Amino acid sequence: MGENISSLIIGIDEAGRGPLIGDMILAAVVFDHVGLRKLEELRVRDSKDLSPHTRAQLYGPIIRSSTVVAVSHITPREIDSFNLNRLLLRRIVSLLKIISVLIDMNNVTSIIIDEIKGWQKFLPRKIRELAPKAKLVVEPRADSKYIIVSAASIVAKYIRDTNLEPVRRLLGDFGSGYPSDPKTREWIISEYKADMGKPPLIIRRTWSTLSSLAPNWFIKKQTRPNHKHVSQKSILDYISQKDQR
């Protein structure tokens, strides 16, 4: 009782930080108190604890219950070119700026984020500028502690999985994409042996596992001072590359 129904909470999480393959997806979701109650009714929890089928079932209701959802795609080329933590922090601010066009940020009471190394030096000032009344909460495993971050994790994971499906149809089943997955490792070795040229654009070339699986594809990361001049690659680029091979 006594809730300010205009107050809003933002949850932010990513999917695909660790894999060798594919984009990383960053999602920011905005909910009011009515929407948060809907998340509780849906029994939303951390995406890692849910099957792909359950994530797919929850995705639509989460979107419909939200006030705003904003998503950023971070490509393998960007991941190979820049410090990943700094890249994520900048993208968080970019998403919040987009959200600020759609809602009154003075109504945001909390912004809750799964912890990213170095956030203390970057986020607090930016958050004060964008949402002066919001409490910033940054914690490890926030996706398992806060239902709104769980919702963001489901959105990010569902979009990443969905985006990879047409790539699987084009390039074959590469498993989960994680370096520890035998199917992923076998697929990389097979692709490497089949074509010693440039690797498929979905592969992150600075991951150390690649140095033993496909040594000519591995490159050492030399991070750039900013990320303004790296061209984006879309699913159409993957299709075009496959056609040329």
Descriptors:
245 residues; alpha/beta; Nucleotidyltransferase, domain 5; Arc Repressor Mutant, subunit A; 5 strands
Structural class: alpha/beta
Beta content: 5-15%
Question: Might you state the CATH topology name of the largest domain?
Answer: Nucleotidyltransferase, domain 5
* Gap from first CA to last CA: 63 Å
- What's the CATH H-level superfamily name of the largest domain? Ribonuclease H-like superfamily/Ribonuclease H
Q: Enumerate the spans where pLDDT stays under 50 for 5 or more consecutive residues.
A: 229-241
The biggest beta sheet is recorded as: 5 strands, mixed
Helix count, DSSP H or I runs of 4 or more residues: 10
Specify the helix fraction band.
40-55%
Q: At CATH's second level, what is the architecture of the largest domain?
A: 2-Layer Sandwich
Mean pLDDT, as a whole number?
Answer: 89
CATH class of the largest domain: Alpha Beta
Q: N-to-C SSE series?
A: EEHHEHHEHEHHHHH
How many structural domains in the coordinates? 2
- The total beta strand count reads 5
Q: What strand order characterises the main sheet?
A: 3-2-1-4-5
